[in-house]
Amino acid sequence: MILFGDLKKQYFAIKNEIDAAAKKVFYSGWFILGKEADNFEKEFAKYCGVKYCVGVANGLEALQISLMALGVKSGDEVITTPLTAMATALAIIKVGAKPIFVDIDPRSFNIDAGKIEQAITKKTKAILPVHLYGQMADMGTIMNIAKKHNLLVIEDCAQAHGAEHQGKKAGSFGDCGAFSFYPSKNLGAFGDAGCVITDNAKLAEKIRALRDYGQSGRYNHIYFGLNSRLDELQATILRVKLKYLDVWNKRRRQLAKIYSQSLAGVKIVAPVELKGCFHIYHLYVIRVGKRNELIKYLLKYGVQTGVHYPKLVYRQKAYKGFSKKISHCEVAEKYCREIISLPLYPELAAAQVKRICRLIKNF
Q1: Whole-number Å distance between alpha carbons of 135 and 230
Q2: pLDDT tens per residue, range 32-65
Q3: FRET partner for 159 with CA separation of 20 to 30 A, picked from 34, 56, 188, 274?
Q4: d(CA 34, CA 21)
């Protein structure tokens, strides 16, 4: 069986380091907002090329706290993509704002920057691009639009740890960048975890307060905040893993190249790495006409696959009660019926990738 993901293999590859780091936390007796979280925040900020990083409990709250800190509120509109995890839209809804969906770029799966301006209204407060599958959105165009219309930009970097656009890391373009460290991410914790990065000192300070009940200093509550803190155990695990992130991303790119070369000429559409982008292949997503048939075929021969995402956000039952108006995104509507995520993780063998490609050719 070729698993879609295998987190145990990664753990055993760095077991001694992980175990030693975890033991250090256990022996310290300090488990929330301690030295490990502080050190990880500094190290990840440096890695991303920004001044500040604030650890939080998960990716959803990284987005939600970002929006709260930037003053996005009830009555505001936030432009984003419909092809994403529900957390993207949920964060917008949680602060009382309304997500406005713009169709995706046919090549990258990301929000089509060329269609953003036509969605801007007097209520538009921010743009929330998602760097989907490991490739960044067109941040040059998005930042120019934001500047022109005086809009905020919050980057959803949940699938883009180490991805670059024009030599800059994901999360370093907008007012802030929100990350998830869910276990299956390119940089994953051993549970839920997340962070927000920014170059704005005042914004970082507010985010730091909002994650901890809205307090600035113990028992000095200046905002209505959340309980959303990066714990010491997850922080120390992330510190160990951060040292390997570039190596793991390089391996993902090597495997993605094998996929693309082996599937050349086959009746599927392989992912494209756009000019100026450094794709870190959180997921290797192809498009094929008979999606469900291919999934069953591969599973019959012992290959697990995934679909990210089979239903657009505004097609979800929970969203229907939120707004009567639904944006029609033709490209996204088509693609969500065709996409399949193939197995791709650093511990996957090249021979396994080639076997998957042979099966797809036979299909």
Answers
A1: 26
A2: 999 999 999 999 999 999 999 999 999 999 999 9
A3: 34
A4: 14
Specify whether the CB–CB gap between 292 and 336 falls below 8 A: no
What distance in Å separates the CA atoms of residue 46 and residue 52, rounded to the nearest whole number? 8
The string of pLDDT tens digits covering residues 248-258 is 999 999 999 99
Is the Cβ–Cβ distance between 207 and 66 less than 8 Å?
yes
CA 87 – CA 226 distance, rounded (Å):
16
Pairing of strands 176-180, 152-156: parallel
Rounded Cα gap, residues 37 and 55, in angstroms: 7
Region at 134 (left for phi over 0; alpha for psi -120 to 50; beta for the rest):
left
259 or 322, which is more confident?
259
Distance CA(245)–CA(262), nearest Å, equals 26
DSSP string, 38-63: HHHHHHHHHHHT-SEEEEES-HHHHH
Is 322's pLDDT higher than 80?
Answer: no
